[in-house]
Amino acid sequence: ALRASIFHMMRRPAGPGDKDAYEYLSDGVLILNGPRVERAVPYAELTAEERRALIFEDLSGCLLTPGFVDAHVHFPQIGMIGAYGAQLMEWLERYTFPAEQAFADPDFAREAAAFFLKELLRNGTTSAMVFATVHEVSADALFEDALKRGMRLIAGKVLMDRGGPESLLDGPDLGREATERLIGRWRGKGRLGYALTPRFALSCSDAQLAMAGELFSRYPDVYLQTHVSENTGEIAAVAELFPDDVDYLGVYERHGLVGARSVLAHGVHLDDGAFKRLSASRATIAHCPSSNFFLGSGLFPLAEADALGAPLALGSDVGAGTSLSAFRTMAEAYQTAQLRGRALDPLRAYYLATLGGAEALGLGAHIGNFEPGKEADFIALDLAATPLLKRRMDTAHEIEDILFSLAILGDDRAVARTYVAGALAHNRDARDAPDA
């Protein structure tokens, strides 16, 4: 039993101040039963007998929340984060493709996967949807390490048969054999899921997109992840390459790639009609504000997408995104909304980063809050992690103010501990922090 303040979302908030959408216990106890949550209750409600029976750990001064969910991130790009001075297409050619070629080496891929997952946990992210590279061994390396750590992770080998260097292109079978081997090895193993991963429409032939659509239909528990309408230059190139499709989203729709298990990153320049189609299909847009700022892609219309019912989640999109921290992602989502004249309230932001992200990935029955029986993936946030954060918290008395201050001022230093399936997976203050 961990004693601390506790916050978690119970459902999507109807708007700012929706107290029925969350539970906040200023002095609470999170009771675990092995890898699962037994319950979260106010400390005062425990009987004397329960207090004697439980093994307590005092985390006073911390706020326990569910672990963050990152709906779009590239693990092979962790080593090129912060690469200078290009928009999307030039950035891919100058930085991304050269960096990804190194992942043909299994040892290199294993080292990078271990570093990436440790960084996720250090930032309080316990679940993610992840791109590997075109190399089968890169996906194997990521899945192996995630399995060792007991993480809920969805990932896939990139599908790409044009628009890049020869060493990053799938061969004549369009990546089918490697993809099916990976599905067979990893789908449903431990807490792992597989995602078909066409990089984006420009990197895939009609034949490869059709093959991905066939596999998406054949395997009802497999996901689909890709990019859509990120950058104006990219969109123009897609229109030229696929002149008969109504728009960028239509390319994927024609190939059977848009459905309730699809996560499409960015969507910066989608129009109202596309958002309505996404709402009808229940496909998710992963909003990646850090990357959209860094590459100059544009300002995602979150309020408009919300109003039209398009399912949404948040993604760090490292390495075009500049941080794995969900705090940074929430802060930049807020700034994006402000620049479009519509503030993003903290309840909505934390919903998207936790329960909403889990629901968008079809994992809401397993993770995302502290409902009894759910998997115990959570973090302990230090509200005095930095002098500035501590000073701000001295004046933040309402939970929404606390959450907003964390989103704007927080970073990895605020994540004191990360727990995966009830086990300590990261301890900021321990020299011998767990590595698995």
Provide an overview of this structure.
The model has no long low-confidence stretch (mean pLDDT 96). Helix 6 links the parallel strand 9 and strand 10. The protein has 16 helices and 16 strands. It is an alpha/beta fold and 436 residues long. The chain is globular, with a radius of gyration of 21 Å. Helix 3 packs across helix 4, helix 4 packs parallel to helix 5 and helix 12 packs across helix 16.
Produce the secondary structure layout:
Layout (H helix, E strand, L loop, with lengths): L1 E8 L12 E12 L2 E7 L5 H6 L3 E10 L1 E7 L13 H14 L4 H17 L2 E7 L4 H14 L2 E5 L1 E2 L16 H11 L5 E7 L7 H13 L4 E6 L3 H10 L6 H7 L7 E5 L5 H10 L2 E4 L1 H6 L7 H6 L4 E3 L11 H14 L6 H8 L1 H6 L17 E5 L4 H7 L5 H11 L5 E6 L2 E5 L9
Parallel strand pairs: 1-4, 5-6, 6-7, 7-9, 8-9, 9-10, 10-11, 11-12, 12-13
Antiparallel strand pairs: 1-2, 2-3, 4-14, 14-15, 15-16
The biggest beta sheet, please?
Answer: 9 strands, parallel
| Amino-to-carboxy terminus distance | 22 Å
| Poorly predicted runs of 5 or more residues | none
Q: What is the tally of beta strands?
A: 16
Q: State which percent range the strand residues make up.
A: 15-25%
In short:
The strands form 2 sheets. Strands 5, 6, 7, 8, 9, 10, 11, 12 and 13 form a 9-stranded parallel beta sheet that branches. This protein has a 7-stranded mixed beta sheet with strand order 3-2-1-4-14-15-16.
